[in-house]
Amino acid sequence: VHFPDVERVEWLNKVLVQAWPYFGTIMEKTFKEVLEPKIRAKNVHLKTCTFTKIHFGEKCPRINGIKAYTKEIGRRQVTLDLQICYIGDCEIHMDISKFNLGVKGVQLYGTLRVILEPLLTDAPFVGAVTLFFMQKPHLEINWAGMSNLLDVPGINVMSDSLIQDFIAARLVLPNRITVPLKKNINIAHLRFPIPQGVIRVHLLEAENLVQKDNFLGAIRGKSDPYALLRVGTVQYRSKTVSRDLNPIWNETFEFVVHEVPGQDLEVDLYDEDPDKDDFMGSLLIGLVDVMNDRTVDEWFPLSKTTSGHLHLKLEWLSLVNDQEKLHEDKKGLSTAILIVYLDSAFNLPKNHFEYSNGECGAKKIKNNKYLKKMEREPSSFVLLTIGNKTQKSKTCNFSKDPTWGQAFTFFVHSAHSQSLHVEIKDKERDSALGTSVVCLSHLLKDPNMSLDQRFQLDHSSSDSFIKMKLVLRALNVEEPDPQRVKAGVNASKQGPVHVMEKGGNQQKFVSPPEDSKAPPVSKDSAAVESLTKKDSGGDLDTKDSSAPVPSEAVAGPDGTEHKQNPEHRPPPAPHSGAAAVPTLPGVQELRLAPSVTSLGSLPSSCFELSSSNLDIHNGTEMPLGEIQLTVRYASIRQSLVVLVNGCRNLVPTSNRGVDPYVRIYLLPDRRWTSRKKTSVKKKTLNPQYDEKFEFFESLENVKKRTLDIAVKNSRPFISQERKELGKVRIDLSQEDLIKGFAQW
Questions:
Q1: Euclidean distance between the first and final Cα of the chain, in Å?
Q2: Which residues contact 674 (CB under 8 A, 6 or more apart)?
Q3: For residues 91 and 56, what is the distance between their CA atoms, to the nearest angstrom?
Q4: 733 Cα distance to chain centroid
Q5: Same-domain pairing of 106 and 167
Q6: 354: which strand partners?
Q7: Residue 40 — left, alpha, or beta (φ > 0 → left; ψ -120 to 50 → alpha)?
Q8: Where is the composition biased (Basic and acidic residues) (predicted)?
C-alpha cells in the first residue's frame, strides 16, 4: 500500500550506489590512519594490532523510504525518518599477536531519525545535524578468522546483542550524535533537549488470553501471564499472575518520552514457564495519540494471537515550570522529573590516598610495584543516585579532567525533601575520587527551577569540581481539548482503516504498513471532523490526505445519508466503553488518495473466489463471492505480511448457514505447521476478520512463491456439508510487494 507520507527515494539510492566505492576508499584510509593507532594506544596487548584487509564490498546501504515531518514540529527544524536496510558484503580482517580476527558480512535494519536544526538565514542554512535510531536496530554479523567462534549457536546471539547494546548506548534514544555544521554554534541543547513528556501506564487487567500451558502435549492448563512494557530502550516487567487467563495486575509504570511523533509504547504478554516463556500477544500504541487525548482508558485487542484484550489506562504528563504542581502525590506516584546534564570534572586526585578529607597527606606505600599504577591518571565514571534509583555514566580513561557529556533523567516523588547523590569512582581501583550531595530544594529557589554550575567535591582535593546542569520539571495532566474527537482504542497501531468509496455502498479496506506513522483513525464517522481539522481546513484532498477516512453513514450532496449494508458494517470494538458519536451531515464528499482507492476500484483487481483453482474469475463459471486482502513485504522485519480483511457475498452450502474462516498457505510449503488460519465467524456470508499473518522469508524467496488462500466452512466432523467455500491463488512473482496492494 502506497502512503504519501512515506516516500520512496530511488534517486538517493542511485546516488549511494555511485558514491559507495569512493566512500569505501575514504573509510579504508580512516581505518589505517586513525583507528589503528587508537586501538594500539588502548592497551599494551593491542600494540601489534594491524588491519590486513579492509574492503567495504560492492553492496551499499539502501533507503527503503523517507518520512518528512514539518507540521508537527517547530519552524526552525526539519525532521526525517530514514528506513535503512544494509545487507553488506564487507570484509575486514585484523591481526593481533598472531591471531586473525575479522568480519565478512553485516546485516542492519532500522529507522534512523535525522534532525536538521536550527535552520539559518545564511550558509550553510543548517546549524547542525542530529542522528539517532528510534529503537534498537536489527543487527547480524558474520564473523571470520578466530572470531568465527562467535558464530556458534548461542554465542552468536550473545555477541550480536552485545554489539547492539554498544550501538544503543551511543545511537538509540535518548542517546544521539550531533554534528555542528556552523562554527561557534552551541550544540548542548541539541544533544540533550528537554524530553517531550512522560507517559504513565496503568496496566489494569486482561481477558480471554490464549492457553499456552500443555500437559503431555494434549491437556491445556491455564497460563501464568506477565507483561513486558517498553518505550525506546527502557523496559519494565509486571508481576506474574499464576494460572489465570483473565489476570488482574493493577500496576503503574512511568516512561520518559523523548520524541513525539516517533516513539511508541510496546506491550508483549508472555506465559511464564520453567524452560521457555510462551508468547501470548502484543500491542503497539502510538504515543502521539495519547499526547493529544491526554488520557486514554480502553480495552485494546491483542495482535499476533487468536484472542485476548488488554485493559490499559494511559496518562500523558506534560513537563511544566510551575512549583505549585509539585505537591506530593498521595498514591506515591512521581510528581516531577530531574534532568541531569553531566558535563565534566576538574583536577581529580590520582587516587583516594592522595587526599584525605581535603587535606594533602603523604602516604607511605609499602609495595613499590604498585607505585606506577597509583601514579597513573584515574579512569573515572560517575554514579548518580536519587532514592533507590542509581545510574552510571561512561568511563573516561586516564584523565584527571574527564569530560562525559551525558544526560540522565530521574523520577522525583518529593522535590522538597529528596537529594541527588553524586559519586566519582576510579574504574581501576573501584575507589571514590570525590562525592557531592545536591538538595533538590535548592532548585526551587531559582525561577526556572534549574542550576548550571560547578559543584565542589567532598572527600577530594580542595580544587576538585564537577560541572553539571540540573533541570527540575513538574508533571502535569492537562485537560483534553473538548473539541477533539478522541482516538481511544484506535491509538493501537493495528488493523485496517475502513473506507467507503464515493457514491458507493461497498467498503474498501486498506491497512497501513507497520512502519508508517500515519495518524490512526476512529471507526466512528465523527473522525472525519478531527481529520478535516488536522489538514489545512478544507476537504480531505488527494494531495494532503495521509490516511483514508472511514464513514458508516456519509451524507450525499442532497443531505440524505447513504447507509451501508448492515452485513458489511464492521463489528464495534469490544469494551470500548465510549458512547456512539453522531454522524456529520455536513460532509459533502470524501476524496481519497488515488493510490488507495484505485487499487480496489478497478474490475481487474477483484479476487473472486472460484470453485476451481483459477486465480481470477474468468466469467465462465459461477463466482462464489469475493475476499479482500492486503499484501505487502516488510523489509525491516524481513517478512511477508498478509492482512485478511473480510469476505462478501459468499455462497451458502446449506440452509443452516455457514461459519466461515480463511486458511492460508505459502506454496509450495503445505506443512500443517506453516498453515495460517483466521478465527471462525458464526452464521454470516460477509465475515469481517481484520487479522494479520506474517511469513518470515527473504524477499527473494517470497518472489518465487504463491499464496494459496481458501475460505472454508467450520462444520461438525461428521457433517456431509461441503467444507470449502472457495479459493484463490496469487502469484507473488507478478506483484510489487514493497509497494504492496489491497484488493477485493
A1: 14
A2: 665, 666
A3: 6
A4: 30
A5: yes
A6: none
A7: alpha
A8: 531-544, 559-570
Task: Give me the torsion for CA of 165, 170, 173, 176, rounded to 10°.
Answer: -170
Would 531 be classed as within a structural domain?
A: no
Q: Is residue 541 assigned to a domain? A: no
- CA dist 441 to 239, 340, 418, 713, Å? 34, 15, 8, 69
- Contact residues for 171 (Cβ-Cβ < 8 A; gap 6+): 131, 132, 133, 177
d(CA 78, CA 70): 6
Is there a domain that residue 146 lies in?
yes
Residue 318 neighbours by CB distance under 10 Å? 16
Report residue 606 as a C-alpha cell.
477483484
Computed over every residue of the chain, the mean pLDDT equals 75
User: Quick one: pLDDT at residue 533?
Assistant: 41
What would you report as the CA-atom Rg of the chain, rounded to the nearest whole angstrom?
30
pLDDT higher than 50, residue 572:
no
* C-alpha to C-alpha distance for 260 and 258, rounded to whole angstroms: 7
Query: Which run of H or E residues covers position 167?
Result: helix 155-171
Strands of 613-743, DSSP E:
626-634, 639-648, 660-667, 676-677, 688-695, 706-713, 724-731, 741-743
Give the per-residue pLDDT at 556.
41
Q: Confirm if 340 and 468 have CB atoms less than 8 A apart.
A: yes
Cβ-based burial of 304 (10 A; exposed 0-12, middle 13-18, buried ≥19): middle
Contact 743, 735 (CB under 8 A): no
Count Cβ atoms within 10 A of the Cβ of residue 494 and give its class: 0-12 exposed, 13-18 middle, 19 or more buried.
buried
Displacement of CA 114 from its chain's centroid (Å): 16
Q: Which domain holds residue 736?
A: 626-743
740 vs 735: CA distance, rounded Å: 8
> In this structure, are 32 and 178 located in the same domain?
yes
E-strand stretches of 208-274: 213-215, 219-221, 225-231, 234-237, 248-257, 264-271
For every residue of 350-382, DSSP letters joined together read SSTTTEETTEE-----S-GGGHHHHHSPP-EEE
Q: What is the pLDDT of residues 274-285, one digit of tens each?
A: 877 888 899 888
- Cβ density class 151-168: b for 16+ within 10 Å, e for less: eeeeebeebbeeeeeebb
Nearest to 280 by CA among 241, 307, 313: 307
Q: What is the mean pLDDT of residues 541-551?
A: 39
pLDDT band at 743 (very low <50, low <70, confident <90, very high): confident
Residue 410's CATH number: 2.60.40.150
Question: Could you report the per-residue pLDDT of 455-479, keeping only the tens digit for each?
Answer: 988 888 888 899 999 999 999 887 7
Distance (Å, whole) CA 442 – CA 664: 64
Question: How many angstroms from the chain centroid is the CA of residue 194?
Answer: 20
C-alpha cell at 604: 481487474
Instruction: Calculate mean pLDDT across residues 417-433.
Output: 85
